[in-house]
Recover the amino acids of this structure.
């Protein structure tokens, strides 16, 4: 009797063990691909507790959430013959779990290799200036190149970004000198434009003062007020050239009048001495 009960317990344990090996838990971020004797069974197992035939079926769990692939720095030569190093990051996910299991042995490694070779290929077709200034164009072209082979593997490329561009030291110094020369050129142009505008305004002001001479005196008084506001002990008042010319002209007229008066007096004295004729 003891032997019978022992056999029953063993049989029950074996059944539970076999049933337990046939249960698979598929997580929410996974999909299950079942192969029976190496042949694909459809449909794809959805998240939850799934039952397979023990020792007959084999389930591959494929994650379907977005994965991040870091592409190591790749040495490449741009179209204008500049040697640089560029690294990137690829965001992708498994869109078709069946293709990811059947069409490629290791989709992670395969996607990584495709990303590296595509990065070198794309960098070789663009100029250095395009790579530094128009990242969106380079990223879009890189994504299109990576999507071509990975589409057959059931991989969907969500986004591709180039992270860092490593330039040689000589190229960095050349670009620094170029940027400095460009800034100096802009400063010279702005300074020349400012001088041109200032000269135009000064010419307009000179024309206005020439039309109204009294405005020059008002400007002189305004300058005196501005200088006196600084509370200086010495006040220097500039005299305009027109004022000096006025004094010079007035002095010249006075001298002529003074020289003419003695001559008239001498004539009168001579007439008085001669007497009546």
């Amino acid at each position: 009797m003891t032997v019978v009960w022992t056999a029953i317990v063993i049989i029950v344990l074996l059944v539970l063990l076999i049933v337990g090996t046939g249960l698979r838990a598929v997580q929410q971020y996974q999909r299950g691909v079942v192969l029976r004797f190496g042949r694909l069974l459809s449909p794809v197992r959805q998240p939850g507790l799934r039952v397979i035939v023990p020792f007959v079926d084999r389930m591959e769990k494929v994650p379907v959430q977005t994965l991040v692939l870091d592409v190591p720095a790749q040495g490449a030569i741009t179209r204008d013959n500049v040697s640089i190093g560029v690294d990137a990051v690829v965001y992708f996910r498994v869109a078709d779990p069946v293709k990811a299991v059947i069409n490629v042995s290791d989709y992670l490694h395969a996607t990584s290799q495709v990303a590296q070779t595509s990065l070198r290929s794309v960098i070789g077709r663009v100029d250095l200036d395009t790579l530094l200034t128009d990242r969106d164009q380079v990223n879009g072209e890189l994504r299109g190149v990576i999507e071509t082979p990975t589409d057959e593997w059931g991989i969907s490329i969500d986004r591709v970004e180039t992270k860092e561009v490593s330039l040689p030291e000589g190229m960095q110094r050349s670009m620094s000198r170029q940027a400095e020369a460009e800034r100096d050129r802009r400063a010279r142009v702005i300074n020349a434009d400012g001088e041109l505008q200032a000269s135009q305004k000064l010419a307009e002001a000179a024309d206005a003062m020439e039309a109204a001479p009294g405005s020059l005196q008002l400007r002189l008084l305004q300058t005196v007020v501005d200088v006196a506001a600084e509370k200086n002990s010495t006040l220097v008042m500039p005299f305009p050239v027109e004022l000096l010319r006025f004094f010079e002209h007035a002095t010249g007229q006075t001298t002529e009048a003074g020289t003419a008066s003695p001559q008239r007096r001498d004539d009168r004295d001579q007439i008085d001495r001669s007497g009546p004729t």
In short: The longest helix spans residues 169-211. The helical segments are 2-21, 97-102, 107-123, 128-133, 135-150, 169-211, 214-228, 241-274.
